[in-house]
Input
Amino acid sequence: MKDEHIISIIEHSPFDALTESDLATVRAHAGHCDDCLRAYRAAQISSLLVKERAVAAFEPSPFFQTRVLAALREQQASTGAAAAFSFRRLWKATGALVSGMAATVAALAVFTFFAPSLESTQQDTTSAFGAYSAEELILARGDLPEADLTYDGLLTTIYGTDVDVDAER
Output
């Protein structure tokens, strides 16, 4: 029994709920083990303190209920006014941002639904620049003459004019 400590018995159930056999086991072991003796005495003292505190009656001061209810009513009245005030303050702080975002969404909607189609302008620019698109020039290098494989040749084919690359750099 010296190897088995009784602290687990004390910790798992309230001290007042211990059976006589558990108390006998605790007392027998506490005679040999100082740590368990301290735990047993601490459990006894804690149990007594809790019993004494539970017996003591607490009486609230006179008009306690009246003061608590008055404070509660006052808080509820101020909360309603504060909620309206806080919304007004919130709108004042973020009104410009919200209005700007709404205007941006409206402008994007107008551009999306009422702007002219870009397909017709893309077809016109492709035919104006020549028969080749940029993808065709890069991917189909074998179809072009050797002279057009230079950087100047590609720019000439894409833009349709002679561009002096060295002068622009």
Notes: The two ends are 95 Å apart (CA to CA). Residues 118-168 form one domain. The helical segments are 7-12, 20-30, 34-55, 64-114, 118-129, 134-139, 151-159, 165-168. The chain has a mean pLDDT of 75.
